[in-house]
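Journal club prep, notes for RB
We'll compare a predicted complex against what the paper describes. Inputs for the G3D case:
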Amino acid sequence: MTIEEKARELREFVFKIVIIGDAAVGKTSLINQFVEGSFQEDYKPTLGANIVRKDVNLDNARVRLIMWDLAGQEKYRVVRSMYFQGCQGALLVYDVTRYNTLESINNKWLKDYKKHVKKKCAYILIGNKTDLKDQIAVPTERGKELATKIKASDFIETSARLGENIEEAFSLLVNQILSNHGVNI
Ligand code: G3D
Ligand code: MG
């Protein structure tokens, strides 16, 4: 393929991603790790959300991720409906040291998500804080089981503290979104 043909092939996408889960599971830490040096934050007090951007370059596509991270105003219904509006992907996060945060995924967060998101939308399940080895209360198997039960596209365990599996988690989600849009990378 010539350079000109390659340039025509290069496609650009913009995806809105939401990150949800109980307080203190590590949502903000995961995003901060992912965006690293290119950290950009745009706090919208009226929306109660931090909006962070990251561009991901793939072989034949450029993907701009606009990540929405709720900033402690989860209780306001109107905020949540705006938060979910138009999103293409979601990261559902629990804390591997607190079993109740896993239960919240199905009982609370996924319900909420399905109520607001009507279009085909990818979501993956993340068990965060794997570095706290002595305190693990949710075995990997339980996470896998839940992911299957809720039909998540993927399941992955991460440590935002150590930066483990962060890139992998986001790329699982991006690949699923692209595949939902019929794009092969
Ligand atoms: P949230 O955005 O979901 O509310 P935060 O969660 O990202 O604010 O993280 C909540 C607390 O958990 C923070 O601790 C943060 O440092 C910690 N944390 C997040 N991810 C990890 C992880 O992978 N491993 C460990 N050990 N801790 C993590 P503080 O003490 O600042 O409240
Ligand atoms: Mg946060």
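Talking point for the session: The first strand starts at residue 11 and ends at 20.
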